[in-house]
């Protein structure tokens, strides 16, 4: 038996080659792998000795040879194939151990040139892998060092690798080469500044962790991350305390983080079931925490809290008094972390680059039955706005309108958010009509904070008002300013009603549906 070994990732390769050799397998190798094996005492022969042809073109051509591929592709059960090998004096190759040039590691390096990236596109490796995978009945093909043990165990116990395992290894090959090619095409697309949607879309992600279950216990769940640096992403956060994040934890925390990124001043966002339940901004992070907590002391129970400043001992002491699922912050005071760690199930995450946003051309992807729908992320807040009422908003109202507009962008449609003094005071998410969302936000404000809290508040709507009923409800609640996209055929009805009640209203001319 013969094994051809050519690996970029040399994890465990010396030990694996020694074990193969002990099982009577002859080792053939290339370039740096051959050098490594020889240095470690493995009796390998160089690929050029097998092919009778020297490596050339700076190693670009070494395994692209009929002796290699005929030895891999020959079907042992095909008498004609085997006769041709004999006539051509070619031996079969029974194991192909290959992982590819480090293209991913290359393009992630700072300052890498296009020439460097292109030079790290493997040609011979994928060709050997595909050949061996196609002939999986006769060839064991290994791309992942984690599979060395599986192959050796069967080889030692049975003298061969089972067909079932070979079929599994075949699958690993095409996953590996598919991901590799997808990374290359993505890199080229980025280099060309091509923001079009391709005719055929391939995406590649790396597994971060499997979960105990998905959204519900009867569903499976797993977390994958995009290939790249993913700054500001939950997938790169360091967990400092608590049990494993669940599917719902990750989904809800991601929404909270994306809302947090809209703010530059000290801000705290509390989130529950994918919707914000309390948001506060202030000159210092403690006051921001107090605003977020007091906005909805009920819903924050079992919720997620994210902060864009360091968690202080004072904040940690208050957080520890309530049941929270997840806390994410860019840093923690030593004493704060010690306090939070006393709650063994509380998931405490460190994300130093928490304020970094996704690039505007990043994809937002939703699964549907039989396909996916893809769009670029909602990266804009607003381009401009227009005051459409007789009364202009005061500077304070305008500050609160822009604050609340950020919040409603992340509230499920139909969504309404009320704000006052840079604090969310009532949120009405996910209703099938806008008046219900408006009434719900007012009711929540008065129930969760206090009667009359909506006097002097502002209202933000993620999409236009189809009727003037929301203005009527706002007036009854004492709301003095409204921010909404506009664009309804009946906009004038709402404008007239605002003028009647002295409410200031601005149109953003941009909606933020969130389905």
Instruction: Pick out the low-confidence regions.
Output: none
Portion in beta strands: 15-25%
Average pLDDT confidence is 92
Structural class: alpha/beta
Helix segment tally: 18
State the CATH class of the largest domain: Alpha Beta
- Helix proportion of residues, in percent? 25-40%
Largest sheet: 6 strands, mixed
CATH superfamily of the largest domain: Methylglyoxal synthase-like domain
Shape: elongated
Quickly give the CATH architecture of the largest domain: 3-Layer(aba) Sandwich
Radius of gyration from CA coordinates: 30 Å
Distance N to C terminus: 58 Å
Remind me, CATH topology of the largest domain?
Answer: Rossmann fold
Give the total of domains: 3
Seen as an oligomer or otherwise, the chain set is: single chain
What is the β-strand count?
A: 21
Sheet with the most strands: spatial strand order: 8-13-12-11-9-10
Note the topology:
Blueprint: E1 2-7, H1 13-22, E2 26-29, H2 31-39, E3 44-46, H3 47-51, H4 66-73, H5 79-88, E4 95-99, H6 103-107, H7 114-119, H8 124-134, E5 140-142, H9 148-158, H10 163-191, E6 205-211, E7 221-226, E8 238-241, H11 247-260, E9 267-272, E10 275-281, H12 285-295, E11 303-307, H13 313-319, E12 324-329, H14 334-340, E13 347-350, E14 363-368, E15 371-376, E16 386-387, H15 395-408, E17 416-419, E18 424-428, H16 434-448, E19 458-461, H17 469-477, E20 481-484, H18 491-501, E21 504-507
Parallel strand pairs: 1-2, 1-4, 2-3, 4-5, 11-12, 12-13, 19-20, 20-21
Antiparallel strand pairs: 6-7, 8-13, 9-10, 9-11, 14-15, 16-21, 17-18, 17-19
């Amino acid at each position: 038996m013969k094994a051809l070994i050519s690996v970029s990732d040399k994890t465990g390769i010396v030990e694996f080659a020694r074990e193969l050799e002990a099982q009577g397998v002859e080792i053939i190798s290339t370039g740096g792998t051959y050098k490594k094996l020889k240095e470690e005492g493995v009796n390998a022969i160089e690929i050029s000795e097998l092919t009778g042809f020297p490596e050339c073109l700076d190693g670009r051509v070494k395994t692209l040879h009929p002796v290699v591929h005929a030895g891999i592709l020959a079907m042992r059960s095909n008498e004609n194939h085997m006769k041709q090998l004999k006539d051509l004096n070619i031996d079969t190759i029974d194991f192909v151990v290959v992982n590819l040039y480090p293209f991913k590691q290359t393009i992630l390096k700072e300052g890498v040139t296009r020439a460097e990236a292109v030079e790290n596109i493997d040609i011979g490796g994928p060709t050997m892998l595909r050949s061996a995978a196609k002939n999986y009945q006769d060839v064991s093909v290994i791309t992942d060092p984690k599979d060395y043990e599986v192959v050796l165990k069967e080889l030692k116990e049975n003298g061969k690798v089972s067909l079932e395992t070979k079929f599994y290894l075949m699958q690993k090959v095409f996953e590996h080469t598919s991901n590799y090619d997808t990374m290359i095409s993505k890199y080229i697309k980025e280099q060309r500044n091509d923001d079009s949607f391709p005719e055929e879309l391939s995406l590649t992600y790396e597994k971060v962790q499997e979960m105990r279950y998905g959204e519900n216990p009867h569903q499976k769940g797993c977390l994958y991350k995009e290939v790249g640096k993913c700054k500001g992403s939950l997938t790169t956060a360091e967990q400092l305390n608590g049990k494993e994040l669940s599917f719902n934890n990750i989904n809800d925390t991601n929404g909270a983080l994306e809302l947090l990124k809209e703010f530059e001043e000290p801000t705290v966002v509390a989130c529950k079931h994918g919707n914000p339940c309390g948001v506060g901004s202030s000159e210092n992070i403690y006051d921001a925490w107090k605003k977020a907590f007091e906005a909805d002391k009920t819903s924050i129970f079992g919720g997620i809290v994210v902060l864009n400043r360091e968690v202080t001992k004072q904040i940690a002491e208050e957080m520890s008094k309530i049941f929270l699922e997840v806390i994410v912050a860019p840093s923690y005071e030593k004493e704060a972390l010690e306090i939070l760690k006393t709650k063994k199930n509380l998931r405490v995450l460190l994300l130093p680059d928490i304020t970094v946003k996704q690039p505007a051309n990043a994809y937002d992807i939703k699964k549907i039955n039989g396909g996916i729908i893809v769009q670029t992320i909602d990266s804009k807040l607003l381009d401009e706005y227009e005051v459409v009422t007789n009364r202009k908003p005061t500077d304070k109202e305008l500050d609160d309108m822009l604050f609340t507009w950020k919040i409603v962008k992340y509230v499920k449609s139909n969504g309404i958010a009320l704000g006052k003094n840079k604090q969310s005071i009532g949120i009405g998410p996910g209703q099938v009509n806008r008046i219900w969302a408006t009434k719900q936000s007012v009711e929540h404000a008065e129930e969760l904070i206090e009667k009359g809290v909506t006097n002097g508040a502002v209202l933000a709507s993620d999409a236009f008002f189809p009727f003037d009923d929301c203005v009527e409800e706002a007036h009854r609640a004492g709301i003095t300013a409204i921010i909404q996209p506009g664009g309804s055929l009946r906009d004038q009805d709402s404008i007239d009603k605002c003028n009647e009640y002295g409410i200031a209203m601005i149109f953003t001319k941009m909606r933020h549906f969130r389905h």
